[in-house]
Every structure is written in structure tokens, then in C-alpha cells.
Amino acid sequence: MEGVDYLAHERKTAQFDVEAMKVVWAGSKHELELSDRMARIVASDPVFRKDNRTMLDRKELFKNTLKKAAHAWKRIHELRLTEEEAGKMRFFIDEPAYVDLHWGMFVPAIKGQGTEEQQKKWLPLAYKMQIIGCYAQTELGHGSNVQGLETTATFDPKTDEFIIHSPTLTSSKWWPGGLGKASTHAVVYARLITDGKDYGIHGFIVQLRSLDDHSPLPGITVGDIGNKFGSGAYNSMDNGVLRFDHVRIPRDQLLMRLSQVTREGKYVQSDVPRQLLYGTMVYVRQTIVADASKALSRATCIATRYSAVRRQFGAQDGGPESPVLDYKTQQNRLFPLIASAYAFRFVGEWLKSLYTDVTQRLQANDFSTLAEAHACTAGLKSLTTSLTADGIEECRKLCGGHGYLSSSGLPELFAVYIPACTYEGDNVVLLLQVARFLVKTVAQLTTGKKPVGTTAYMGNIEHLMQCRCAVKTADDWLNPYAIQEAFEARAVRMAVNCAQNISKAPSQEEGFFNLSADLVEAAVAHCQLIVVTKFIEKLQQNNVGDGVKEQLQVLCNIYALNLLHKHLGDFLVTGTITPKQGALVSEQLRSLYSKLRPNAVALVDAFNYTDHYLGSVLGRYDGNVYPALYEQAWKDPLNESDVPEGYAEYLRPVLKQQVRLARL
Amino acid sequence: MEGVDYLAHERKTAQFDVEAMKVVWAGSKHELELSDRMARIVASDPVFRKDNRTMLDRKELFKNTLKKAAHAWKRIHELRLTEEEAGKMRFFIDEPAYVDLHWGMFVPAIKGQGTEEQQKKWLPLAYKMQIIGCYAQTELGHGSNVQGLETTATFDPKTDEFIIHSPTLTSSKWWPGGLGKASTHAVVYARLITDGKDYGIHGFIVQLRSLDDHSPLPGITVGDIGNKFGSGAYNSMDNGVLRFDHVRIPRDQLLMRLSQVTREGKYVQSDVPRQLLYGTMVYVRQTIVADASKALSRATCIATRYSAVRRQFGAQDGGPESPVLDYKTQQNRLFPLIASAYAFRFVGEWLKSLYTDVTQRLQANDFSTLAEAHACTAGLKSLTTSLTADGIEECRKLCGGHGYLSSSGLPELFAVYIPACTYEGDNVVLLLQVARFLVKTVAQLTTGKKPVGTTAYMGNIEHLMQCRCAVKTADDWLNPYAIQEAFEARAVRMAVNCAQNISKAPSQEEGFFNLSADLVEAAVAHCQLIVVTKFIEKLQQNNVGDGVKEQLQVLCNIYALNLLHKHLGDFLVTGTITPKQGALVSEQLRSLYSKLRPNAVALVDAFNYTDHYLGSVLGRYDGNVYPALYEQAWKDPLNESDVPEGYAEYLRPVLKQQVRLARL
């Protein structure tokens, strides 16, 4: 029945002010109002419908995405949206599209790496979308290792041009979003060669397509790299392949903020500090952490609401079955994911402030915190995206069979999300970078160099190497100090252990190479500590609203203690806690899950997601799932006729024994 | 270049006889020859091509599947294939299709639950495919809990008919494969009601569609439930929805082997033991375990070969980069999955013999091992499918960005595989059943009842509760006795711990309910022990072939020790091993990975998969990956034109500033 709230009883049991929690989740009243307004504009516009995405073939899907992008551009102007509002609108349109790369990579690359003159020339064109740009770095044979790229940009002093060329098949640009079909321009990364010398990788602005008729320019081979994971999903994006056959561009299309080539072909470095590039990396990874909390919260919202709707077993007397949300195995898998969504939200918020801090320091030529900030964002990018990818799939499984239907929204959410584990730094490669930084930090402790920021706790090494956890009862595990100390001790002991084992190897590099599996685990321990710490710090802020703080406390404890249980081996093997204390963790977790249960639906309501954004029949706000599932089914193209296409050719002959030529 | 083996150098480093290992993997020379022959027949037939699956829209895909099924039926007769050969052929066609349910569920249901007379009537029709059947159990609102099904079959003594009816929306049949478009008949599960009394769930043969023109019969609403996870994947299957509006069927279409309704409407149970149904469950789950090893081996084959091809970092002097297979973090993630594929292969082989044993006992009215066999297969189904689903996704990640392309084959393999975690018993529900059996077994130890089969080790409880692991060096962990004892002690201690905690609860049921998260962990420990034990037993068999046994030993040790490391918390918290011994596990694992490295490619070659079956550009036998990726890209429909459809309507107006109505 329309208008009935089938989850009203769940909402009534909430022990906190949901509206106040919405503000906490959004970050501020302004953010909440802004998101809410933009989400509703998108949801109410039929051009932005999403429920047919998985039924469109590749060409229809892509065309539909072009349509949405053009319509959004029109609406942005009609409504005179600010840049902030336009960004939110694109976010709620929720469809991977070439515009993401134009605004998210092409424009920032010119801003960050172009001279003032270059910015003046190119940015107005990009802002007005008179050109559409993408970011062409990765190659068919080269991903994480940027220094391995093969594309060449050879300076020709005779004509004052660079010759961009793809010398091998593996040097083909491969993957850049927006490259395949939409972009007219690209920032292309290539080896700068002048006067016979290779100066390594630099960025160049290259026009790919005619602005008259969009056809590829001479010497340019460009296309789409083909179908990707899932139906719908990233197939709305024209990830592209690009090859250059001696394409000439003017010298001044080298992005020249950091280095230039003179008219004579001399390579000159500017005095702009290279560290500025790290600032961009910190920025991009910070947004990835923020996106992780959005994706995970969306998945948990779907799984939580449907778990309250779906009933199974439990009726001894023929009465209704129990909602699966009552089952401890369901809580045990789902509640830590809700807690993680909140944890990632807050650590993301903190990372935003870290980025501001780093930017201010860079402007003042203070690079002292840069390495730490870089390691911290790299680690958190890895930690949050890995957990979110796995968490979305876990939420799908928590929805039982129906989670496998496209109409549940979860298959597409998973398919769209998982590239985050690979792009902007492969998650394992990033953890090794963190580990390298940790081992270095440990080594420097003896030199008296004070560790900063998120590694400051390592300054307390003497205490942390030998402290004993004081927990005696399950309730002692509610003490944030006990939790934080346990995570600090575990992290520092694992790092020190790695450092010691490396020092036994014939060389530092060999030790690092052989122990990389252990190093990854030490890095994870460090990153989990950061998230736990930032969650605990968040609890110390004044969060207004009835019961809000109490709920956050429960979530924080679930987040930390679930990790403690999951990584119990780490804590025990380092002697951080005892087996008995480990058993008390399980006991406390059970009690925390019971506390969360009556608030579960309200806690995911606090994300304030529209049904349009959720895009899930199972996650509907009103819980009226089954009629919606049933209706959605009939929209499938296969149901256009009762008797399927192919019956006459391939089914009837079988049934009528016209296929059989011999007996079995 | 065609014909060049880019992995030849990897194959040369193998230290064992790959052909002999192929026999071990296949199970026998006969099996190897059969699989090899059928795989080649399928691979060489253009009708069975798979590389276009993800590019077809739903209707094209389904029609193509009907075509393949009809063609297979034709070939099966032309080649006069045996039933065994035909089954293998369908396996290598490797496309979910209505025939899977016809042969795998419809025919066995009639065989298992029909009387001799019913079999005589229906089986010949089914064998000749003059009717096509499916298995309609699950409903929109009811999955795991079969007793909750709502469809009714009410006996009408006036007409000697059952009236099949869907009383509610949630009672709609939902999910059955083959139901939506292909099946003419179904075995429908419904509540048998006669004389006003509900006798619970029974199976009925119901005709759904006209045999003349395939249109749905009166009172029947039938269709497809819509798009599912992934592109291609299970969308070739017409999982269906079915509603009955008082559909009448003759009384003798109740499957009557176990119970009958007389002409007068009296419900009568036959003297056939109900336990026979468990035999079927053991059979089905045994095949699921076998399928897990196939899916996981396929994913590891792709990831291993591509990890040997793909190079990244490591070149200090400008030389070629290192293959990623050399990296310890890659080995640490991939090698345990190769080991798991082998472990699941062998435990699956053993399960097959268990099924034979159970069948023989059932025929002799010996039910003494049935509960244990049932728990064992339930647990192994859960353990192997969960690990395989996660393992396929891990293999995808191990292929870096390119694993995200449909042409890598991994997205579709994942999408096709994951339902195995849900169907035939949700994996968590199954583990709880195992746990219930374990707790019961522990309780019976004091009564003197001897545990049988895979729980026999529990008879040794006194020793296992207090034994101390004797491992002193990393090499001591190569001792199978030390490994097995550690797994036994951990499993029994976790089970006993659960049993003790349950006994403290106000009631057994309450204790069971509250501790279900712990119970699941205890069940996992028990199931892992079974797999480890069967692998160790396999090593005691005579495996001919140079170096074969040594390789299996390495794989077995990797399988066991990786689990030990992953679940270190269990082993430490139960006091099974010490922290020091835990650290030695990591040390030994590093050494085992180095031993496996030169054999990695040969170990996945031993699966003997054709490139057609693998269906992956990255997993090509010859390793010539990049040209193939490049060629495949151009086949995408988006590349049919240089300028995309939609340019004129949606891109040109943006670029030409015809969209903007106002300035930003």
C-alpha cells in the first residue's frame, strides 16, 4: 500500500534524535541542507532515472549518459547553481561519466601543473566546456609504476614542437575515463626527450578530436576499451585507448609550472617545490576516503532496512517469522559495517582538515609534516576502500538471494565501487609505502627525531612496548583509553618487530622485499589505529541532540572491538592482551549489538538518502519491498512477450523431437 | 606473435611432471581423457563461442543460450554421447541455462520422490526433452525456511484433483532457473491440504505451458524475474516468477514415493524412510564442493598466468620490470588460493566416496552415519563456496586494473559463481547446523557415544584439550602430525568452549541463539580441519609422476599454515599454540612460497583448461596478453563508429555553447 511506512515500528524504537544525527553525518546544517536540496532536485527529474540502467545495452547506456550530462549542464545554468551545488548535483546523479574526469582530473591538472599563462588560456575553455578533457596517464602495459610509462614526447627544435608518439603496443594509453568517445583534449603523460636526453614523465595538453565534427585528428587512434565489470555500472564511462603516430603539438602545451623546455630545446626546472604534487595526492585520496563512507553507508542502509523487513524462521507457533535483523549472525556481520561507515565518515572529515593544514604549510614552505600526511592518506585510502568493497558484497549476501537481483542495487554499487581499490594507487602497494614510512619512523626514534601527527604515539614507545592491558571485565572494554592503548601497543610492536626482522636481512631492501607480507599487516594495524583514534576524538566533540553521543559511543566501540576480535592473533602474538581479555571482547560485542539493535534502522536513516540515490528496491524507505520487486521484474525486456524470442527456432524443435537424429 | 609461448620460461622451471599432475587433478586417466575430449569439441565449435556474452542485451543473450542448448542436444545425438559425456559437454559449454535445472533438479526430483509408476510416465518424456522441467520451491517471501512456504495444494475429492494456488504476493514462486521462459513443467512445492488439515510441504508435477504453442496455461502467470548481477553471467538463465490462480491438477501428480492422498482424501505415509531425502542433499552438496574447486582453479589459473606476464617496478637499471608473480605480497595472496583449489579438489573427491558410502548404508537401512555425513557436507559446502567467491574476487584484484575488464573473464566468473553461497542452503545457516551437530557431539561424549567419521577426532578429547604443540623450529611446521593435531585441538577446544557457554544460558535454545557468532567460528574450525585432514590423507596415496608428491606436499602445507596464520587468534586464544610458534608459521610460509614460485605456472597448467573454457584474455595459455586485449577492445559496440551515437544531440550542443542559458 502506498504511503504506509512498513518500518514505522523500527523507527519508533530509536533512542536518539535522528534529525540531529543527520547533521552530525552531513558535517553541518549547511551541508545537510545542500545535500538534501540537490538530492531532491535530481530525484524528481525523470531524465535522471536510474532503474533502467542495467537493462540498456552498451550504446544505449552511453547515449543515455551523454543525455544526462547535457541535461545536468542545462539545469546547472538554469538554476544558477554554485560550483559547490553543481558538484553535489553531479554526485547525486550517481552515474560514472566523462564529466567526472573533466572536472575532477583535467581541470585540476591544468590548475596544478600549468603556468599562469597556460591556466589563462585553457581554463576558461574548460570551465565553459568548449573543450572536454581527460587525464591520460596509465598505459596498456603500465599502471602503478608511473616511471615505467613508454609514450614519448620528443622536442623538435626545427619546428618548436613536441612529437608525441606511442613506440610500442604496451605504450597505448589505456583506461583513462572520458577518453574513448567524449573528450576533445587530454593531459597526456609522456617521457620528455630533448637533445637526445630522457627527462622522465611530464604532462602535455594534447587535442584529440576536431572541434568541428568530433572526428579523431590525424595520427590519433582513439576508442573505447570495451565492457567492464557488471551491467550498467562503469559501462556508462568511455574508458579509452589512445595511440599516437608522431603527433605534433606546440612546445607551450607542455605543462610548465615545474619544468620548461626553451626554444633551443634546453630543459629547465622552475623553482616551484616538487612537493606541491603531494598536496594534490593528499587531496584526491581524501576525497576517496569520503566516497568510501558514502558507498558503505549506502550498502548498509539497504541491508539494514531489508533485514528489518525480511522474515525467516523463528516462528514456533505458526505466527509470523522473525525479522532476520534479530539474528545474532546477521548483527555480527552487519553492525560492524554500519559502525565502519560512521568511522570512515569521521576519519574522512578529519582528513579534510589535514588537507587544509598541509596546504597552508606548503604555502609557507613547511614540508615537515608532508611525508607523514602522505603516508596517512595513502594508508587510509587503502584501508577504507578495501573494507568498503568487501562490505558492499557482504551487505549483498546479507540480503539473501534477492541481493543478487539488479533491482537490489547492490550488484551495481559493488561493480561501480571496486575500482577504488586499484586506482590512485593499488591498495597493497600503498600499504607497503606506509610500512616503509613506519619502519623509517621506528629507526629515527633512536636518533631523537620526534614522530609527528598520526605517528606521534610512537614517541611513547618505551611504555607501549611493555604495557599490560588492564581490562578485567567485559565492561572494561568500554574504556576508550584501554582500547586506544591496545591499538597503539599492537601497532608499535608490529612495526618494531618488522624493523628488527629487516635488520637481520643481508640488506634493508632484501629484508623489506622478503617481509612484505608482514609489513602490510603492520601498516594495516597502524591505519586501523588512526581510524579508531579519530572516532574516539570525535566523541569528545560536542554533538548536540538527544542520545546522539550515546549512539556514537556504541558505534565507536563496535568498530574498535570488532577489529580487535578480527585481528585477535595480532594482539595476542604481540602480547598486547591476554587470551582471557580477548574472550571478554566477544562478550562485550554481544552486549553492544543488543544495544544497537533498536537503533539500527534509525542509524541508517540518518544518512538521509533518497530512494532515488539508494537505487534499491530492497532499501526503500517505506520497507514495502515485495510489491516493488514484483513490479520491477515485469519491466525486464525478456517479459515483453509470453513466449520468448527463439522459441520457434530453438525450443520448439527440441520439444517436438525434430532435433534428435538418434536415440540416447 | 602467433604460436610463440610467452610463458615457456616459466614452464621450464617446473620441478614436476605436469602430465602426471593432470591425472591427479582429473582423478583418473579416464576422467582426464574424457574432459580433454569434451572440452576440445566445445572449444572448436563456433556456436559455443563465449567472448560476445557480455556484449549481448538480455534478449539476444537468452536467445543465444536457447541456440546453444539446441545445438548441444543435436551434437549429443550426432556424436552418440553417453550420459557422462553429455554432462561433461554441458559443463564445458559453460553457460547457465534451463537445461541445468531440467537435468540437475527436475529429473532427479521425479527419480527421488516419484513412485515407480510416476517415473515410468514422466521420465521418458523428460529424457527425450518432450517436456522441459524446473524445480519451483523458493518463493518471493521465503527462501531458506522451506517450512514457511505459502503456496497451497488443496485436495478436492469431488473432482479427484489438487488445486494449486498462490494465496499471497509473497507466495509467488521466485528464483527457479528455467521457469521464466523455457519450462513447460515444474515440480512445485506447496502445502498439502486435505480434509481441512495442512500436512506441510510436498512436491507436485504441474504443467505450466501449452505443448502446442508454449503459451502459459489458464490460471498460470509466469515470467522472468529480471536482470541479475553482472553482464552476461546468470542473465542467460530465465530465473522465474510463477503465480497460480486455482490451477487444477490430477491427484496422481503429487510425487508419491513418501506420502500419498487416497481417492477419498486421506493422507497416508509410505514406509519409505524419510532419511532418503538426506541422501539427495549429500549428493547435491558434494557436486557444489566439486564445482568450487573448478571455479577457484579457473580464477587462480588466470591470475597466475597473468602475474607471470605482467611486469611492474623492480628495474633499477632501466632493464625490464619484474613479473608481479615475484612479489611476496602477490605470492602471499595467490599461492594460498592455488593451494585451496587443490585442497577443495581432493576433499570433493573424498565427498564423492562418502556419498557412495551413505547410499550403500541407506539401502541397508543403516542411518548411523547420516547425521554426521549431512553436517559434514553442509559445512564443506559453506566453507568451500565462501572461500571460492572471495578467492575469485581476490584473483581479479591480483590482475590489477585489467581484471576489471569483462575480457579478463573474472567479472563474469565471479557473477556466475556467487549464488553458490546462497542456494542449496545459505552459508551461515549451514554453519549453524554444523555447530548444532558439534555441540550435540560434545554433549554425547560423556554418555560414551563414540563420534563417527569426520568427528571421530573428538573421541580423543582428553588428549586434545591439554596437548601442547611441540613445534620448536619453522621446519617443525612441515610435520603433518603437528599440523593435524593443532587443527584438531583448536576445533575441539572451540566446540567445547561453545558447549560450556551455552550450558550457562537460561536455556539451550537461548544460549545457542546468543552465541551464534561464536558457533559459526567453531563450525569453520571443524570444517577447515576436515579439508586439512583429507589433504594429508591424499598425500599418503601413491601418486605417480616425478615430483608430483613433493608439490602436493608444498600445497598442503601452504593450505594449512596459511589458515593457521589467518586464524591465529583462534589457535592462541585456545592455547593450542604459543605466540612464538605462531611467528614460526609466518617464517615457514615464506619459505614455502619460494618453493612454489618456480612451479606456479605449471601447477595451474595441470588443471588442463582450454582457452575457451578459461574465457580470459589475461589467462591465455601462451601468455600473449596485450595484443589480445587490444584487439578485443575494438569489438565493443561503442567502437562501431568513431563519433559516438548521441554526439549531435548531447555533446555538440555542450561544446558549441548551445546549452548554456546563463553564466556560472
Automatic annotation (TrEMBL), chains A, B:
Domain Acyl-CoA oxidase C-alpha1: 278-439
GO molecular function: acyl-CoA oxidase activity; FAD binding; fatty acid binding
Source taxon at top rank: Eukaryota
Binding locations of FAD: 138, 177
Active site: residue positions: 424 (proton acceptor)
UniProt keyword terms in alphabetical order: FAD, Fatty acid metabolism, Flavoprotein, Lipid metabolism, Oxidoreductase, Peroxisome
Domain Acyl-CoA oxidase/dehydrogenase middle: 134-235
PANTHER family: ELECTRON TRANSPORT OXIDOREDUCTASE, PEROXISOMAL ACYL-COENZYME A OXIDASE 1
Protein family membership: Belongs to the acyl-CoA oxidase family.
This protein's name: Acyl-coenzyme A oxidase
Organism: Rhynchospora tenuis
